[in-house]
Amino acid sequence: MAYSYSLDFQKELRAVACYAPANWNIYLPTNRHERLAFYSTTGTTDGTCTYVHSDARKQGGKYCVLTHLADNGVTVLPEIPVATTPTHVTTEFKGCPAEYPVVFGSFVGGHTDYAQDPGAGDNWIAKETWDFFMRF
Predict the structure, then answer these.
(1) How far from 100 is each of 61, 84, 95, CA to CA, in Å?
(2) All residues at 6 or more sequence positions from 103 whose CB lies less than 8 Å from its CB, including other chains
(3) d(CA 72, CA 33)
(4) Residue 122 pLDDT more than 70?
(5) Rounded to whole angstroms, how far apart are CA atoms 39 and 104?
(6) Rounded to whole angstroms, how far apart are CA atoms 39 and 119?
(7) pLDDT per residue over 55-90, tens digit each?
(8) Where residue 51 falls among pLDDT bands split at 50, 70, 90?
(9) Exposed/middle/buried for residue 30 (C-beta within 10 Å: 0-12, 13-18, 19+)
(10) Is residue 111 classed exposed, middle or buried when 0-12, 13-18 and 19+ CB atoms within 10 A define those classes?
(11) Quick one: CA torsion of 77, 49, 122, 17, rounded to 10 degrees?
(12) How far apart are alpha carbons 129 and 69 in whole angstroms?
């Protein structure tokens, strides 16, 4: 739901955080293409809300991130680093206005395994989400 809101309520919301967003198996309003601060996470082995559901249709968590990068003014969309070891990888993308950052956290795990990074403790997503929202 948070991803749906991020497309339609950019003027009402300052920032959105999505855990395992999807853009194919839920209601999606028309994207208004307004700027919005956006944080999301996806597990590389998530079988419910996959990182890439379909490249041809631009479906999956990857495309949720790329949508907000484009909406925030990034004209050359970057490759998105993803975790390949138990240590999560969080990336804040360059090219966005400082007041509208886009941040993506990737981890090796499934739909409910998001707190499994042994080096970061059990609450890395909660901490990163808190830090992200405290910027505004």
Answers:
(1) 19, 28, 10
(2) 38, 39, 40, 90, 91, 92, 93, 128, 132
(3) 8
(4) no
(5) 6
(6) 21
(7) 999 999 999 999 999 999 999 999 999 999 988 999
(8) very high
(9) exposed
(10) middle
(11) 60
(12) 18
Interatomic CA distance for residues 21 and 24, integer angstroms: 10
- Locate tokens 């240590």: which residue? 87
List the structure tokens of 23: 């853009």
Residue tagged 């070891």 (tokens) = 85
Look-up: residue for tokens 């990068």?
69
Which one-letter amino acid corresponds to residue 39? Y
Length of the chain: 136
State the amino acid at position 103 in one-letter form: V
Contact 124, 100 (CB under 8 A): no
Pairing of strands 37-43, 102-107: parallel
How is residue 25 annotated by DSSP? S
Q: Calculate the alpha carbon distances from 69 to 9, 94, 128 in Å.
A: 16, 9, 19
Average pLDDT, the chain: 93
Half-sphere exposure of 61 (CA within 13 A, CB side): 28
CB atoms < 10 A from the CB of 34, how many? 15
